[in-house]
Every structure is written in C-alpha cells, then in structure tokens.
C-alpha cells in the first residue's frame, strides 16, 4: 500500500502557528471588522479610490502593509498575553461610530472616514483587552494614516512656497514681482499652483517620518527632532524646486524648464528628499527596526493596566455589543439621511434699493459650482453710483456627500476653468473672501457666505457643525450659498462696493432668507 506525505497548505501552516488562546479572539476580530466594513463601506470605497487615483494619497497603499508588518513583529511578545473582552472598548466604538454618523449626515467626508478608521481601531480593545491594545498601540495609531488628508493645507502651502520662491528668485539676481501665488519674471508669469504646493510629499513624509521616528529611535527627544526635520525638509525642498524651474526658464525658456520639472517632480524628487533626510540623521539611529519595541512581561506586571482590566467582559458579549452598535447606528443614519427641507417651486432675487439688475456679461466666464442644489441664481447688479456686483445664490434641501456646499471644487473657484486662486481675501464671521485671477490679468474678488437656520457664516467648520446638529436632531432646514463678487477692480474698491451692496440689502442673512422665500 502506497503512503503519500501530507503537505499542509501555507494557510494551514499559518493557522497552526497561532496559539490556541488567540484563535477565537482573532476570528471575532475579523468578524467585527467585517460588520464595520459593511456599515462604513461607502467611506472605505471612497478612500480606496483616492489611494489609487489621487497622487497625493498613493503612499497610503503601503499603510496596510506597514501596519501588518508592525503587528507581525510583535507576535512573539503578544503570544504571551491572553486576549479578553473589555467593556470600555464598546464606549470607544460608540464614539467612533458617532463621529462617522456626524460626518455621513453632514457630507463631511473627512469626519466620516476618520470615524470609519477609528471604529476598526476601537474593536481591538473591545475584543482583545487593554494589555493587547497597549502592545499594539503604535500599529493601531498608525492606522490613522489610512484617512486621506492634506487638501486643507494646500492654500497655506502655496503661500509658503511662493514666499520661498520669491526670496530665492530675488537672491539669485532675477527681478521678480509677486502677487499672491503668481510670480512675474522677465521671461513670463509663473504660478505656484495647487500641484506645486508640495502637499503630496508633505503628507507622505509625515507618514514615513512617524514610522522611522518610532522604529529607529528610542528617545522621544530624537523622535521629535527627526519628525520636525522630516516636515521642514520637503517644504524647503519644494520651494527650491519651484525656484529652480524659474531659474532654468530664464536661460533655457519656459518650455524646457516645465519639461524638466515634469520629469523631476515625482518619485525622483521624493526619493532625493528622503535620501537627504536619512543622510542627515542616519548616525543617530539607535534602534533596530525589527525590534518589536514591547515587553510582554512588563505589560503583564503593569498595575495601571490591571486597574483598566476591571472592565473585562465576556468576548462573546463584547462581540454582540459591537454588532448591536453597528445595527443601531445604521438605522439612525438611514432615518436621519432622509430628512430634507421642502423646496419652493421657484426663487428670485428680491429688489435692492438703489441697485438694478443688468445684463450679466463678465470679461471671463465665471459660473460658481453648486452640485446638487435645488435652485441656482446668478445676476449682476449696478448701483446708481456705478458700482457693479455679481451675485450667485444656491439653495439646497440638505447637505450630504452629494450636496456639499463647502466641498472642494464647489463655490467661487471651479477647477479646470480659467480662474486661479491668488490669495485669501478679507475674512469675517459672515463671509470669507478670495482673490481670483483669470488669463493672467483679470482679477475677481469673491466673498462666500453660507446660511442655515439662523446661522450666517463664512466658516466651513461652523457650517459643518450646524449641519451635523440639524441632521442629528432631524431638523429639516435648507442650506444656502451666497457669493458676492466684483470683477476687474482692486481689492479695496471691490470690498467697498460689496459692503455698499450688503448695506442696501439689509444684511447677508436676511437677504438670503428673502431670496429663498423663508421670510
């Protein structure tokens, strides 16, 4: 009789290496994550799309692999600790899901995506207990880099880069004039565009810097110093790169300089910056990256963790709590998302004393975007004194991820149009301004206000918070956007014309309500 040797599959061999007391806890963790993925699936699909298709977030594709590697390095120490259910972990999960709910109802993707990631993190202490969580603290925290962020930094980074470039340009003897993010030189006008802000490399360097700081340094002083350098270096290097493009253009022409920049600006640039960072700091590395960095015996002896462990519950009870929380928040989200304000059949601008509507004929086409709005109006008003103000108004029945009045690309500056952002305009509680430029010479000043309930604001944060509150309380309130704009005049003249128009309307908030038919 012939006997054949049995060769277990790689999966079977991996399963055999898992300690018996860890098999069921890991199965429960996998099931809990599956439930949460089903609940927050839309956010994970949105994040995955950004990781794959938006160059700023391509580095996030490596984060799951890094988290897996960090956890694998700790497997020997963690095997000495017995997992256990922990009731306070359910409180953490409820908080994470509440943040996800707020973001989902307000169309605030950053909040909903953060909540989705925090929910995955929270089930670790809920199902595995505080000791295991302490051992996995860094990889759990590192999961936060799964959330795409950085777009909020673009305007500030554009201004910082422009400041570096103009200083280097003048220092190198090239006469130049700066207007916001536009730099005029003898060979032409250069723009520090959004793609040149350096945000792509800053957020990637932050993720890499945190990883290196934790795995290659033992002391917090060195970690903080390394991370500060890791953040400062890409900002400075990006400014030097942008200046280099201008400098080369002075002798070789703009076309040659742009071609060189397109070749150089990418992973070559990032690799060079990382190489410089490592060359400057290598000598101070004092920890092996393969070192797990945790002491299981110290975790087992910890009195503070002993006190936390008083909240221990049965693992099956914890899993049932997770499923119930997910189901409860799914029902809450589904019911609240259907709350919308009734829209009038039509709307129209009220009369403004001393101002008349005239033909809207801008020098360069300007049509703000209001995706998902039920109504949109745009008009030009001329005063008896000759001032002209362009007015855009949009009315939404609700705010969500499809109808987000304050989202990127919505409002006064629409991507892929002749208009470019130059610098911030004036800002006050009821409005936020921006200076725009088209075709290198046509200036437009635009001031944006939002209205919901009794709140009139130019702050995205205040609008989001108000929307979250209303949706949670099932209030059916509309949201309105008002953009007042002046084309072809200076900043001060434009501001004065807008102020005179607002004064004639009786105030932004009241006039928006009348336009929407609410008063």
Strand content: 15-25%
Number of strands: 13
Helical run tally = 19
Specify Rg, calculated over alpha carbons.
28 Å
Question: Which word captures the global form?
Answer: flat
Q: Total domains, how many?
A: 3
Backbone structural class? alpha+beta
Give the terminus-to-terminus CA distance.
94 Å
Low-confidence stretches: none
Helix content percent band: 40-55%
Oligomer: single chain
Instruction: Name the average pLDDT.
Output: 90
Largest sheet: 8 strands, antiparallel
Subcellular location: Cell membrane
InterPro entries: EpsH-like (IPR013426), Exo/Archaeosortase_dom (IPR026392), Exosortase (IPR019127), Exosortase-1 (IPR017540), Methanolan_biosynth_EpsI (IPR014263)
Keywords: Cell membrane, Hydrolase, Membrane, Protease, Transmembrane, Transmembrane helix
Main location: membrane
Précis, in short:
By secondary structure, the chain is α+β, with helices and mostly antiparallel strands.
